[in-house]
Fold this protein.
Amino acid sequence: MLLEALLASVLLGAGIVALAPNRYAGKLAAAISLVPLVGSLYLWSAFDGVANALLSGGEPAFETTIAWIDLAGYQLQWHVGLDGVSVPLVILTTILTTAAIVSAWTPIDERESQFYALVLLLEAGLLGVFAALDFFLWFVFWEVVLVPMYFLIAIWGGPRRKYAAIKFFVYTNVASLAMFIGFIALVFGLGDSVTTLGLPEITQALQEPGALGEFAGLGPAALKAAAFFAMFAGFAVKVPMVPFHTWLPDAHVEAPTPVSVLLAGVLLKMGTYALLRFNFTMLPDVAKANAEIIAIFAVVSVIYGALLALAQRDLKRIVAYSSISSMGYVLLGLIAYTVHGLGGATFQMVSHGFISGLMFMVVGVIYNQTHTRMVGDMSGLADRMPVTVGIFVAAAFGYMGLPLMSGFAAEVLIFLGAFPSTVLPGAPIFTALAMFGIVIVAGYLLLAMQRTLFGPFSLATDYELGRAPVHDVAPLVVLLACVIALGVAPDLFYGMIQDAVRPILELGGGV
Amino acid sequence: MALIELPTWAALAPALVLGATALVLFLIDSIEPEPDTTSPTLLTGVGLAGALSALGFNVWYLIAGTGQTTAIELFGGQLMVDGMTLVLGTIVASVLALVVIASYDYIAEEPHQAEYFSLLFLAATGMTLLGSVDSFATAFIALELSSLPSYALVSYLKDNRGSVEAGLKYFLVGALSSAIFAYGISLVYGATGSLQFDAVASAVDPTALPGILGVGIVMIVGGVAFKTASVPFHFWAPEAYEGAPTPISAFISSASKAAGFVLAFRIFTTAFPIDAVAGTIDWLLLFQVLAVATMVLGNFAAATQENVKRMLAYSSVGHAGYVLIALAALTPQANPDLVLGAGMLHLLVYGFMNTGAFLFVGLAEYWDVGRTFEDYNGLASEAPVASVAMTVFLFSLAGLPVGAGFLSKYVLFGAAVGAGLWWLAAIGAIASALSLFYYSRVVKALWIEEPTEEFEIDSYPVGLYTAIVVAAVVTVLLLPAFGLASEEAIAAAGALV
């Protein structure tokens, strides 16, 4: 019941904050968000899950199963539980939410109680996505995330916020619908061999040879392929992958900084998490048969995302596009089907969550003081805001993969995993191409830093540049600590991640 | 098992209660010597008592299992009571109760309130009866009983040109489609020699007069399409919903649509099972075409509206398209319980969310804030509770999981995929994504836009607020409690097929 208590506390907290006066809402929300944060750390310390929650032999921790809806032969359940892949993501969510709430104290100055209530609602949805083990339950959480996100962008965002919000809304909704149809076709193709929409049951049924029958005129192989690509397209929008990425820069640039933090830090991970759970665990044979195509998607995302970032002047846009690039690495790790490939990809989800959240937050702190994010509009900030700039530099090096930062561990694991892949023909070439992305990342980050942070001081906007307040800097320090901790000791999470992804390899093929 | 054995006619109690309430309301009005001096509180109170006791009977029978193992036949097979009857009765009575409470404020200034309430109850009686008809003769009578009072109700605001025009248009299209329906019945009678649904099914002989039977079936589809506001007989819907007093728009677009669909479900599963009428007309294909046309037309038209009420009217056409999937997907490989049950579930949830959305528009009219999206700008700062409720209704209509509309819509799409019609689900999905765009325009106006001018809101009407909040609470609660409704709806559908 721990997970339920956690979710209930966040939902209840959202209700309380919504009714609280604006003046206290921020502090109250931060205090309330400590409950799931502490709770999730407890979940981590008490974690006793075994292997992968979806596969046979897997025993998720903190599991609850309650019958929910009976739909003419298909049982929908309240089924939640955590395994080694979901625990790190849950912790990422709770830490980033608290950090985002504290970082919102300065920039958010109207309708505060609504803002913080929506952030907590978002947290509840995100936690649900990572905890749910029943398809419909998971889908409820998956879609519920859109609602607070829509309001957060559309009410507190920048000048083009309404356009960005509706684009995000409709784009991701269409994607969900495509995914839904693909998945349901697969379920009906399984016929009587499944009686619930539980993800473990469906995954395990799909592994049985001959379980999948003919459906709607498609034979088993064609049905699998059709379902795979419908789901792949649906999740690719969320990740986002080139060419489905166009909603992301708009949403990021218009969203207020604390919301960008959650958008890049956690929301994008929903897409890669779902890819891992659905496409790569349920239908490994289709993924392996199409390994080159998927790897091309991955490498194009890495390179093209990085090149797009190189072309930007807006610091926020730079970070936004570089997220596309980083998510490409995740996909490359997944398609490698090796322990370090899958594990590194999962580790990269967490690592990138912290680093990109940190980057957005630093840009936000700078913006709070300078009221500009344009690279050409400022220079020499290092003298005026030494702590903030120091963290900026550290975060950027984390992004580039400096050793002892989590980004280094994640990328090394992915490359180590991808290089010897036997699933992906030409794996060394794809890996080498993807590695080239790091060079571009280093290029645009160093360039941006050199022009904004160093050199003689100048500022195009007329603002008195002061030191950032403590509550702006404190979350930066916390996130940086997380990045370094994971870089120094990846085993904090990597052990359980490996446990959870190893059974996927036993489904056939791989190292 | 009930402690007391009720006589079989007691199974019709929900319809009887509604009919009796209509007569009691007439009686109260005729006791008052002066016209229009009857206390509105008394009328609303009696109405609410009638609606709630009808609801109580329906829920009681559903729980007690009345007529659900074997349907109760009445009057020599002319009427019947089974699970489908009771689920429809529940929808109609719930919507009616909400509309009665809301009308207390909405028509507070209007004359002829007693007539308004009695017509409302007569229409509700007809709609409830539509769920228990078992022959084409009673079907036609129940259809007319639900339609005729509705025409008068739509033009109730007789000094308002929009209302009168709406009533006229509704009446003309309704009269035409009634004629088509009646002619279709006569053709079916000519081909089979029977009016009773089961007898029609067993008398169907595809080799004898297949053309006449086929034309008859197509004409009956036309009559049903009118009642459910589906293409090609949807023309009346936008005008009627826009011009009518808003509680009446809510009532017709929710309850009347549900009644029309239940009639269709019964006719096409009992009287014209697809195997029996093979060789005359493939009504599966017909409904597939109608479902696509209705979904696409309703949603695209809704996306281009500037007036909130008219947008809801077209969205109501779009939702008729979603429910048509339930008939279109009765393919041989489908799980018929799930397909029809999904349609019933969507009608049930739709009853609450759509009624609530219309009533919010009624609230806005009560405050004179105007009719377009822009007029709603910033309304949330003045009426946060009602705006939260409206947001729940709209997002639930759009299929986001803030309300049960999410589950009912996806179960419906899932059932279509299960029937092998993944392309139908895909078209529904595109229409649904489009609907997110226009529904969120209202949400954007309420919460995000700045008000263009000051609102002059001096009172918060108790009745309208109560109805809106209750509808919102039920819409949200049906999400976790979906299992209770789905069990009944799927069992009711299973009894039909």
Residues 301-497 of chain B form one domain. Residues 146 and 468 of chain B are 25 Å apart (CA to CA). Strands of chain B lie at 72-74, 79-81. The two ends of chain B are 26 Å apart (CA to CA).
